[in-house]
Specification:
The chain is of the alpha+beta class. It contains 8 helices and 10 strands.
Length: 283
């Protein structure tokens, strides 16, 4: 009877380590690497990414993975399960856990400033919904941008957004477009196109998401980042200690496919604070 009771206690204790946490929890985790420790906080608003990361971490999944893709002034990437047993010249980055995570864009609140933690994913062509890899992630190292560079990016963002919304609007009015084409009425077609374009432009003026916020502008022109990735990859956390370690990893000598010549290993990944309130985590 005592042995049975002891077994139940052990089972409950093990389950308590992997139970789902509350939606407003902000866990703090540490990655012990061969170059030093990186401490991260996970955002409560990106619940699916946070909980998946914790699940894998508690399973010991990240212990022994390599930083398999490293680009100076850009980012460092890890999480490929195949990297644990890879030979020195193997091409890495295609390994996965057999599932993806739906995108959770909390933009512009969270963006690709220096130290941002984000999920890797396949290209838009193969992955139009921008679903995240189930295990691979990257940490932004980036670079500092001039104000003029950000202005040019905003112009490009505006043009791309206009084209995207215009094409979506055309699709919703396709029946009317086809009717005018059959009638062979180019004047009415042009008038309709102009009308829809003005409609799109008014939509953008009311909600100018193509522009950087003041905080983004401040961060990108001081600490740096990778602003061209904003709104396209899920940012689900950030570095709170160890940016110098990220910097060191990003400058490692690399071979083909941006894989470091020397193996840079995540020796151990663990939760160091189970739950931190959102207010506390933002201090």
């Amino acid at each position: 009877m005592k042995k049975t009771f002891f077994f139940i206690l052990v089972l409950l204790a093990s389950l308590s380590k992997t139970h789902a946490i509350s939606n407003d929890a902000t866990p703090i985790v540490a990655l012990e690497t061969t170059y030093g420790r990186i401490t991260l906080k996970l955002y409560p608003e990106t619940t699916k990414h946070r909980d998946n990361f914790l699940k894998l971490l508690n399973q010991g999944f990240y212990n022994g993975v390599l930083f398999h893709r490293v680009i100076a002034n850009f980012m460092v990437q890890t999480g490929d399960p195949k990297s644990k047993t890879a030979v020195g010249n193997a091409t890495l980055g295609a390994g996965n856990v057999g599932y993806t995570i739906p995108a959770e864009f909390v933009y512009p609140q969270y963006y690709h400033k220096r130290g941002a933690l984000a999920a890797a994913r396949e290209s838009d062509k193969r992955n139009p919904l921008k679903a995240s890899s189930g295990s691979q992630f990257y940490i932004v190292q980036g670079r500092v941008f001039a104000a003029e560079e950000l202005q040019e990016m905003e112009k490009t963002n505006y043009l791309n957004l206009t084209e995207k919304l215009y094409q979506e609007t055309v699709k919703t009015n396709q029946v009317q477009f086809n009717k005018l084409k059959i009638e062979n009425n180019p004047a009415k077609l042009d008038a309709m196109r102009d009308s829809l374009l003005n409609e799109v432009r008014n939509m953008i003026i009311k909600n100018p998401t193509y522009k950087f916020t003041e905080q983004q502008r401040k961060d990108y022109t001081t600490i740096g980042g990778t602003p061209h990735l904003d709104g396209n990859y899920t940012v689900f956390g950030e570095v709170i200690e160890g940016l110098d370690v990220v910097e060191k990893i990003s400058k490692a000598q690399t071979a083909e496919n941006n894989r470091p010549v020397e193996n840079i290993v995540v020796i151990k990944a663990e939760v160091i604070k189970e739950v931190v309130s959102n207010k506390q985590s933002n201090k």
